[in-house]
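Incident log, structure service

09:12 report received: a user says their structure output differs between two submissions of the same chain.
09:20 pulled the input from the user's history:
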Amino acid sequence: MSVAENVAYLRERIASSARRSGRNPDEITLLAVSKTVQPELIREAYDSGIQQFGESRVQEFAAKAEALRDFKDADWHMIGHLQNNKAAKAVEIFSSVDSLDSLRLAERLNVSAQASRKKISVLIEINVGGEAAKSGVAPDSRELEELLLAAPKFEHLDFRGLMTVPPFTDDSQQARPYFQRLVELRNRIAARHLRNIGMDVPSMGMSHDYEVAIEEGSTCVRIGTAIFGERSYLKDQ
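09:34 re-ran on a clean worker, output below:
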């Protein structure tokens, strides 16, 4: 199947999953994970109506950004782990950092965004599975609380919600408890009405489990393989 056919199929499945859980399909953003993908295929996705794209490496996206600069209405999300020393470049080329995982990184992003006279959207990455190999702050941790309480001083960051990647499993149903945990955390934070903290976005769900994620309340699914095909040397989102 072509990229356009894959996108059309995904939109049908997303709509079906939304209706199954009593939701409006328009509430759910399809974010195409374009890491390791050549510009020609990314353009096919864009021509199919995709406007939200996710990349995992600052240098990789910087190298191909010129070939995609005519995507005037596209938003580029940093979804991989972001090192503090690459915050300035990330602010330059991305509109959103969906993997904020420390107070130090928030400080770096805010300084860089201020210098660039822009405001950048961020999602706090939550390590719901407590996996040592994954980035993200632990639910209900001191690190998360410090980040939430410090948000008012970050005037150039727009906190929009949470993101998670649950432990990988071939059975998508096994991801359900982790999605539920993220939504429960989002609801608790939202109920506190903290300054400069929006909680409209729980970003969760990838190619193998996005339907379960939608059933549990995801508003943004990050799909790579199901759009662009297998990339053998990297685990794709």
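09:41 both user submissions now match this output. Likely a transient worker issue. Closing.
09:42 reviewer note: Residues 232-237 have pLDDT under 50 and may be disordered. Strands lie at 29-33, 52-55, 75-78, 96-100, 120-126, 157-164, 197-203, 220-223.
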